[in-house]
Amino acid sequence: MTATTDTIAPATSDAATTGPYRVMLRMEIRPGMTEDFEKVWLAIGDSVTSHPASLGQTLARATDEENVYYIVSDWTDEPSFRLFETSDRHLEHRQQLHPFRSQGSMVTMQVTARVDPSGEHATHADWEAAR
């Protein structure tokens, strides 16, 4: 089988050993449109998460900036994300969110480490006492 330019890395590829490729979008939403933005984002989210290289995404509303949201998505690797990013389906997805956005930016990163919670302390007081 010959690899093509649309070959997607399986979810068990490098993401299992080096961590996923992470994308974080910062979106400033037009005043008065945040509720509708959240509804549309949820309604069309599967157009991202159904992609075979997607490891999921999260929408978070900033607590220190009005009308600002962050969208964090994880991908198996950068080439697969870039293939998604330039797809017709993604462009359609972006067009549905565009009316809500006044400004935005994107940063990309490679997750290099993760420390999971140990679960060894049931309460804050227990955790403090364990010093």
Automatic annotation (TrEMBL):
Q: Which UniProt keywords apply?
A: Monooxygenase, Oxidoreductase
Q: Which GO terms describe its molecular function?
A: monooxygenase activity
Q: List the protein's name.
A: Antibiotic biosynthesis monooxygenase
Task: Supply the source organism for this entry.
Answer: Streptomyces hydrogenans
Q: Where is the ABM domain?
A: 21-109
* Top-rank taxon, per record: Bacteria
